[in-house]
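#lab-general

N.A. 3:47 PM
ok so I finally got the sequence cleaned up, no stray characters, all 277 residues accounted for. can someone with queue access submit it? mine expired

B.Y. 3:52 PM
send it over

N.A. 3:53 PM
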Amino acid sequence: MSGSEPTSLTAEQKAARAGSFGGAASLYERYRPGPPAVAVDWVLPERVRTVVDLGAGTGALTRLLIGRADEVVAVEPDDRMRAVLAESVPGARALAGRGEAIPLPDGSVDAVMASSSWHWMDPVPTLLEVGRVLAPGGTLATVWSGPDPDTGLIAQAQELLSGGEAADAAGIDGQSQSELSAALNDGNALPQTLEIPPGVPFDQPEQTVFTWDVALNADELIGLLGTFSWVILMEDQARERLFETARRVLPDALGVSGDVTVDIGYRAAVFKARRNA
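B.Y. 4:20 PM
back already:
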């Protein structure tokens, strides 16, 4: 982990990063793996009437919900992300909305899931709004999935970017080390847990973790890098310098080049809470 990476974001930084993804909607659709199907199995062991994908992005989770409910509703605030979702997942109903303002009637859904989006929402107003649209006994689930920083290639990259002789041998200067490390730690400044405070209509959550591997080649790894909010918001010149460093580091220091794929360890932390009466 980079010592220079912030441990929290200001409200302005959080808003900027939350609104950044639409500018990279096509990259997000192409390179961001969604959560594993087993995570949805754990949340929804049986078919339900209506399920909502909240902060649905381009529909990585939405795809997995098709066939698990009579109706799948994807709620996404960004017009560009929602347009990609509507085209790529025609079996879902795509609506403009956000966690704090869900455009659905009271008690009309059985489950609400948020995949790598809950941390962009204001938690208490969103909990109250989700509680409004859920039927009593309905389920709220949050999922955070992404490369596991403690395994495989990501751990190797972090060790390399910590500096020292290996970084010098790879020709990675201090600025490039800092930028790449910040990109790899993109989500670490954001909370990745579902907290249920007093006064909201939910029981305390259950939690589990799933791990799996995703095979990616060098181009796909760089494409994935370009979907992180920290990278999307960089100046064009700085972003291209970051990609050039990554293209050099992957074959020279980490042995990833051409069409050869490497298994990237992924981790999904999943929480689910029942709406009480």
